[in-house]
Amino acid sequence: MTSFDNRTCLDKIGLGLGQRVADHAMRKGELHLVCRVGDVNIGYCYIRKNACSSFKRLFLDMGEKTYRKEEWPRKIDYMIANQMMRSANASDCDRIIFVYRDPVERIISLFKNKFIQRKGHEDIFRNYRDLTGAAPEQATFRHFVLDYLRPDFRSLDLHLLPQSWHLKRHFYTDAIPMGNLHARMIEIVGQEIADRYFSKPTNTTQQSRAVDMTNCIEIPANKLAAVYESSVAMPANNSFLDPEIRTRLEALYADDFHMISVIETAG
Fold first, then answer.
1. Of all helices (H) and strands (E), which one includes residue 142?
2. Cβ contact 154:175 at 8 Å
């Protein structure tokens, strides 16, 4: 088990209010949920594109109040209304967990899911259009990275926030690499529940057939979408990368790379 302490010196000496005010202004640490799974009360940091679909299924099924789609068309609205982790109940959690992944892979996965598959893409398309003045359907991955992404994350769609920005100033008992999620969840909730919710990816991006695609980085999203629709083939991650793009992503998400280095060095 690898833990991660995201508290600052202010938090540790009881002066964390100023830190929380600053974090709120930066949109940091906003979405944490709590749910009892068997005998374990789990606090969970909801980080978009980090196996959140699997946790969403688990929390909807295990929630104290029955989820009904006709009442809650958007599942996340039900969770916010009924399962938000407040400061008052954080201390009641047996485990407080978050899932992390390679920052570059995460952004590529987001582009595939929102711009090629177009799953829940409406908000990010609107944000892309507002910030760039360009049609999101025509976006290439190069344009997405170089012209849309920017250091002022507050101006971007929530899916683009760094992973580290999702964290509250908590001591997390479990910092879990996404590639080891199933095994770690066996330790937390047991074999049966872990197998049911975490044995295979929920997101269809990870279920598609990956193929090497020459010059993919310059191909508009609508043309990549046409290929996907006809063959269920998705460009492999390395097809989206060249030195310029990798350098740009590593600079933008430097805080995430630092966080992961701290976690894995300690582990």
1. helix 141-143
2. no
Gap between the Cα atoms of 124 and 126, Å rounded: 5
User: Is residue 112 within 8 Å of residue 237, measured between CB atoms?
Assistant: no
- Say what angle helices 75-83 and 52-62 make with each other, to 10 degrees: 60
Could you read off the pLDDT of 199-239 as tens digits, one per residue? 987 765 655 788 999 889 999 999 999 999 998 889 999 99
Burial of 101 (0-12, 13-18, 19+ CB in 10 A): buried
Q: Contact 1/187 with Cβ under 8 angstroms?
A: yes
pLDDT band (50, 70, 90) for residue 7: confident
d(CA 196, CA 267): 27
3-state helix, strand, coil in the chain (%, to 5): 55, 10, 30
Query: How many other CB atoms sit within 10 Å of the CB of residue 40?
Result: 14
Beta strands 95-100 and 40-45, pairing class? parallel
DSSP at 116: I
Q: Are 63 and 44 in contact (CB under 8 A)?
A: no
Reported as half-sphere exposure (CB side, CA atoms, 13 A), residue 43 has a value of 23
The gap between the terminal CA atoms of the chain, to the nearest Å, is 8
- H or E element that contains 52: helix 52-62
What is the amino acid identity at position 134? A
